[in-house]
Amino acid sequence: MATLYILFTMALMWTIYQVWPVRYLSCLKMNLRDSINKLPPSIKFLDVRDVTEFDRTHIPDSINISLGRLPFLWHKELSPGDEVMILADSCFKSRKAARILQRKGFRKLYTVHGPVLDHL
Length: 120
Description:
Layout: H1 2-19, E1 25-28, H2 32-35, E2 44-47, H3 51-56, E3 63-64, H4 70-77, E4 83-87, H5 91-103, E5 108-112
Parallel strand pairs: 1-5, 2-3, 2-4, 4-5
């Protein structure tokens, strides 16, 4: 019975962690296609989708680092002082990428509401 309580508590904590807002992530509720020129010119677009999805459609000059490789390859294209727009298939993936980058020292993180394909 104690094992059941522990498993339930762990599942509840994991669920809360996934839903909890990421500290330095701002979710922009706009159409990226129409507003891309209004964003700061220094912003870097990080697409965390798989390579096949990225090759099919992507924003020109965006950086593709899949979510699984992000903890290991972020430093090749990004630095903690950069403003980064995270493009992902889901809000879950955007938050996960933001948490990874937050642990690396990033403080200016943005994402758009909804999947990337809705904005391209």
